[in-house]
Amino acid sequence: MGIVVLTGAGISAESGIATFRDANGLWAEHRVEDVATPDGYERNPLLVLDFYNKRRRELKSVKPNPAHLALAKLEQGRDDVLVVTQNVDNLHEQAGTKSLIHMHGELNKIRCTECETVFDCYDDITLASKCEKCGTEGTLRPHIVWFGEMPFMMDEISYALHSCELFISIGTSGNVYPAAGFVQSARSAGAHTVELNLEPSLGASMFKEKVHGKAGEVVPVYVNKILSGELEF
Ligand code: OAD
Ligand code: ZN
Questions:
Q1: Cβ(66) to ligand 1 under 6 A?
Q2: H/E segment holding residue 220
């Protein structure tokens, strides 16, 4: 894989979706232990379902911004791009990106804890919702990776990181592993590494190149440099 792009909440901020760790971010208003852990779901499933219902509803009105659109254009211009997102929104898909891994799951998917079937979901889930496959009531949970759970498709991601020439990290604070460690895998594969973020992330020193600014502004500029051949990868 020539180019691996990792995205986080910062790429969707200009579309109006709250990030996690900025002031007024989701983790300022909710305790991680309550809404983003298997234990929290065991204790109060309704609270957890409602947290994700509200965020799923938001997706009906948000639109991709120039950063998402630029990444879709990058993919159209070359055949060796993989976008790995930590985001659970659908803005990369809305922008047209096809080669995409949702490592932390998707708001528009739910999973039955009884039969493990994953379904598309565009509406609210309640404790009375039934699994369409096994018919059990109250077993549907967000198809979201919570703290303590393994992110999705790690083998595919590792393979891509170990064979990439360019690794771009966009809009992520570098707090959450394994995503925060991808830069090191890419470096050890000999890739050029660049961070495009509003401010230096926790792992900023691990990147060879850093561009700090709003994703909607800096991502289109960087993508154009790649597509025009100014940067050669
Ligand atoms: P964070 O909220 O931790 O970090 C967002 C980053 O985006 C920060 O470094 C901001 O400075 C930056 N940022 C904000 N606005 C921006 C903009 N307009 N342009 C560019 N950058 C901007 O979000 P993540 O790093 O994505 O996991 O968080 C990682 C994971 O932690 C999430 O996937 C989620 C959370 O707990 C799960 O829920 C499993
Ligand atoms: Zn089921």
A1: no
A2: helix 215-228
